[in-house]
């Protein structure tokens, strides 16, 4: 199901990012990363299909319980491939998340040092867990594998929560200082909700996967397949949602009703801490809001 959703979201992302004649480095980055995420999750689905065929279609009839044994075999080639693909998907998602933090803080490299360390710990633990799972003598719930999975989840959850929280706080503070009309509402409210929503989806999926793994439930292997698709879904969803915000504009035929919108200039490049000059804000346009 999530694989089909990702196909639709990827098509919408390309429509949002490539429409219009204007090109921008931020758009190019998102086109490349969205394509990489989509290709990785598509290969992951292909590996799952191969695994299903080998377990239930090409299964030898003279081996009892072959399908169950094969499906739970962590050393099987499709399972190993999916493990490394999941780690790579997490790496790509973390890269996008850290890149947003870097841009929101006006390309201040100091703010991304700790997130990069957390991302390295998360991906390193995930790759190590995939490698350890191929050792025949170690079972599905060996102490080494369990420690690596918990370590990867701890690094990933800390990274997701800290970076998402930092972006939200940054946007909230900037929204409090911006006075773009008579209203006193936070101009970055929609963007804040989008960031929180995407972070929550990823955190919930990984929490469910860890809970099932910690309870020694073999269904955690199936949940990992879903979590891999969700990992690709959340960045694509942000682009589509911001593109939808760009469509919700006051008609340009009545200039007296036009107001600057913070979503037009967020592009995950929120500006400076000081009170901005409102004359520098671009007027509402459907194209400008897509530079996430």
From TrEMBL:
Record key words, sorted: Membrane, Transmembrane, Transmembrane helix
Transmembrane helix among keywords: yes
Stated name of the protein: Uncharacterized protein
Native species: Boletus reticuloceps
Transmembrane segments: 28-47, 80-99, 111-130, 150-172, 192-213, 219-240
């Amino acid at each position: 199901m999530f694989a089909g959703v990702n196909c639709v979201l990827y098509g919408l992302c390309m429509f949002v990012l490539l429409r219009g004649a204007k090109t921008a480095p931020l758009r190019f980055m998102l086109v490349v990363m969205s394509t990489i995420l989509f290709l990785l999750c598509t290969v992951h689905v292909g590996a799952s299909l191969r695994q299903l065929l080998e377990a239930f279609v090409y299964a030898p009839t003279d081996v009892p319980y072959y399908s169950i044994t094969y499906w739970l075999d962590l050393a099987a080639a499709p399972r190993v491939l999916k493990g490394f693909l999941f780690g790579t998907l997490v790496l790509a998602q973390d890269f996008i998340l850290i890149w947003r933090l870097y841009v929101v803080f006006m390309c201040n490299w100091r703010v991304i040092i700790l997130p990069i360390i957390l991302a390295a710990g998360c991906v390193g633990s995930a790759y190590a867990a995939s490698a350890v799972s191929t050792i025949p003598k170690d079972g599905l719930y060996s102490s080494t594998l369990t420690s690596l999975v918990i370590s990867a989840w701890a690094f990933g959850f800390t990274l997701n929560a800290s970076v998402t929280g930092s972006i939200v706080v940054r946007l909230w503070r900037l929204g409090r200082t911006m006075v773009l009309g008579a209203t006193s509402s936070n101009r970055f409210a929609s963007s804040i909700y989008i960031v929180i929503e995407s972070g929550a989806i990823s955190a919930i999926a990984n929490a469910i996967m860890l809970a099932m793994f910690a309870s020694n439930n073999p269904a955690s292997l199936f949940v990992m397949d879903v979590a891999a698709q969700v990992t690709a879904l959340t960045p694509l969803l942000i682009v589509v949602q911001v593109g939808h915000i760009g469509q919700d504009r006051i008609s340009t035929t009545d200039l007296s009703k036009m107001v600057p919108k913070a979503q037009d200039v967020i592009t995950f490049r929120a500006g400076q801490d000081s009170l901005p000059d409102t004359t520098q804000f671009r007027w509402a346009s459907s194209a400008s809001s897509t530079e996430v």
